[in-house]
Amino acid sequence: MPANGNHPLKLQFGLINHEGRYLTAENFSFKVNASAPSLKKKQIWTLEQDSQDIQVVYLRSHLGRYLASDKDGKVTCEADGHNSDCRFLIVAQSDGRWALQSEQHLRFFGGSRDYLSCFAQVITNAELWAMHLALHPQANLLSVARRRYAHLSMEDGEIAVDVNIPWGVAALLTLVYMDGKYCLKTCDGRFLSNDGKLLTQSGRATAYTLELKCGKLAFKDCEGKYLSPMGPTGTLRSGRCSKPGKDELFDLEESHPQVVLMAANGRYVSIRQGVSLAANQDDETDMETFQMEIDKETRKCTFRSSQGNYWALVAHGGIQSTATEVSANTMFAVEWLGHKVAIKANNGKYICTKKNGQLLAVSDSVGERLLKVFFSFILSLH
């Protein structure tokens, strides 16, 4: 589990052929073609790695079926599991494009429009595919080697990789897709150059090809070198390596919304006074900002502080920011009531405020003591 408690993004992408068309999985008869001019649902593929051989990958369509090729090169997308015909190898090219080779039959996948096959013995332009990531463009970037997150350091004018928790807009990087390459854009609208400088305009030095290694991403610059964190602060720039090692590998993690909560007394919920939560502050700082992490199955939320601890229900209905792991008592149901919310704890009671601002989960019904939600910045809404 990463230090932030976030999960690496499932690598989902579109594959663009030499004619600028996307590989498409049709709903009818599980057929595939390369006819679509843009990336939509039917053009999204999910990469899955083999549990025994990390070099082998499977490509799953939006229908939950897998791309496969038989010995005659016929390509289908009907398989509902990892069989031998679904095993592919990614052969990365110097320009960042991929050739997909059937591991079982050692032939390459390519073609155009309705004429796709996996029968080529050598790689030509027709067998090359560009990867277009299909994800929310804003994400957190985690260094695999340092186990630290990238963020904009305004004082030093660089992207530093030196924080345990990606907090605030400074830790938000936007991946900008341009002609098969990606730029890394900071929250103030600047682009990362391969020398570590931040530029107001994108160009050759700010464009990177994405490479995949062991399920992680590497960013290759225009000189064939790779981004990595350098020095004590982890300044992000290209190093001398022409092959990606652990220092050059990154995870992309989905970013969560971070919110500021105002109680009925007109004051912000805070942990400035200690571990107990109370609505007793008039200004917004990191102490009044909490990260909402939504469980996709239960739709309940956890609230995480900038120190990394979760809100937790404790004895007598108290709410404290003390939990280091997610449990039943850190999960809260959020009921939206216009621009306000009611928050219910695991004891079935709603959170309300005492006269001194202390938060307690002791109310059986929704009254006037609701919390207003102000999104200080929305990192991602998946």
From TrEMBL:
Q: Which UniProt keywords apply?
A: Actin-binding, Cytoplasm, Cytoskeleton
Q: Per the UniProt entry, what are the Gene Ontology biological process annotations, in alphabetical order?
A: actin filament bundle assembly; cell migration; establishment or maintenance of cell polarity
Q: Name one GO cellular component term.
A: actin cytoskeleton
Give the chief site where it resides: cytoplasm
Known SUPFAM superfamilies for this protein?
Actin-crosslinking proteins (SSF50405)
The record ties this protein, via InterPro entries, to: Actin-crosslinking, Fascin, Fascin-like_dom
Q: Does Cell inner membrane show up as a keyword for this record?
A: no
A GO term for molecular function: protein-macromolecule adaptor activity
Instruction: Report domain Fascin-like positions.
Output: 21-131, 140-252, 264-368
Q: Where in the cell is it found?
A: Cytoplasm, Cytoskeleton
Q: Tell me where on the tree of life, at the top rank, the source sits.
A: Eukaryota
- Record keywords: Cytoplasm included? yes
By sequence similarity, the record places it as follows:
Belongs to the fascin family.
What is the name listed in the Swiss-Prot or TrEMBL entry for this protein? Answer: Fascin-2b
Taxonomic source organism: Xyrichtys novacula
